[in-house]
Amino acid sequence: MTRFTVNNQPVEYRLDPQTPLLWALRDASNLTGTKYGCGTGQCGACTVDVDGQARRSCQVAIGTIEGSYVTTIEGLSRERNHPVQLAFLAENVVQCGFCIPGFVMAAAALLRRNPDPSEQVIRDTLTNLCRCGVYPRVVEAVQRAGR
Ligand code: FES
């Protein structure tokens, strides 16, 4: 049994401790906002927050995060949109939208550490992949969210 907290709720998973967090969230907890893209840690579609750090959940075995605090896109902001989500809307970032939860989670983690990141810092930190190529609008939105 692996125990940790997801979106402020205690959870217990009776799964192999090697199970990727991505699949525990999606299949056991039905938190499908966290997306499966590559499964190899490359794309960032599966990004969630683990103890304040943006982590690629396909690469995090649940047995390694016992007692941790996990936040998914569903738990980022419960009552209204998070400032990063509002900025993504204002900048019309979304095209197909598949990669967006991962970008939002990575951006929120960045802005907690650095509320005024330069374009270079944003590009260096948000290494998530987007097949639609919305990267310039992501940069604009992250800067807007930090203002
Ligand atoms: Fe985890 Fe692509 S699905 S990085």
From TrEMBL:
Keyword Chaperone attached: no
Enzyme class: oxidoreductase
EC id: 1.3.99.16
Single annotated GO MF: 2 iron, 2 sulfur cluster binding
Domain 2Fe-2S ferredoxin-type: 1-76
Keyword Iron-sulfur: yes
Protein name in the entry: Isoquinoline 1-oxidoreductase alpha subunit
First-to-last residue of the parent protein present: 1 to 147 of 181
